[in-house]
Design goal:
The protein is mostly beta strands and 144 residues long. It contains no helices and 13 strands. Strands 3, 7, 8, 11, 12 and 13 form a six-stranded mixed β-sheet that branches. It is elongated. 0% of the residues lie in helices and 48% in strands. A hairpin with a 2-residue loop joins strand 5 and strand 6.
Length: 144
């Protein structure tokens, strides 16, 4: 089982539902700005069991293609579960928000069956846009 990071920040959006294999992005989601780094948290909720498989026994990750067409997979953060649901988050880093444009992503749960066979369950892809920001060439550090 994976070890997940925990962040104290909370999402400013409602929890994003995953119904079946479809990610339901809220209509008001439009605030990722290019060059943001670890400043936006997306929280998801999904049924704990699919076809008798307990998703908490799997590693949950987010696969994405950023605006520069670079693909990556990251582990979820803030993973928790009830008897019915699994809740987890994706903290968006500078690779996700590298430039203005579309980010396509999907969620996957990866592990093994009770027969030690590879198991992969994934959602259909979803998308959001990164809006243009201002970049001055280096990270701005607050003055003491």
């Amino acid at each position: 089982m994976a070890t997940y990071k925990t962040y104290s920040m909370t999402s400013e959006f409602e929890t994003i539902s995953i119904e079946g294999r479809k990610i339901e992005i809220p209509g008001n989601f439009k605030i990722v700005v290019s060059k943001d780094n670890l400043s936006q948290l997306l929280t998801f909720e999904i049924n704990r069991y699919f076809n008798g498989i307990d998703m908490t026994a799997m590693e949950v990750g987010i696969k994405y293609i950023n605006p520069n067409k670079k693909a990556n997979r990251v582990l979820a953060v803030n993973v928790s579960a009830t008897s019915e649901k699994v809740t987890f988050s994706w903290i968006l880093d500078e690779d996700v928000a590298c430039a203005k444009g579309a980010v396509r992503f999907s969620i996957d749960f990866v592990g093994e069956t009770e027969h030690e066979e590879p198991y992969v369950w994934q959602t259909m892809p979803a998308q959001f846009n990164v809006e243009e920001g201002i970049w001055v060439g280096e990270t701005v550090v607050p003055s003491p």
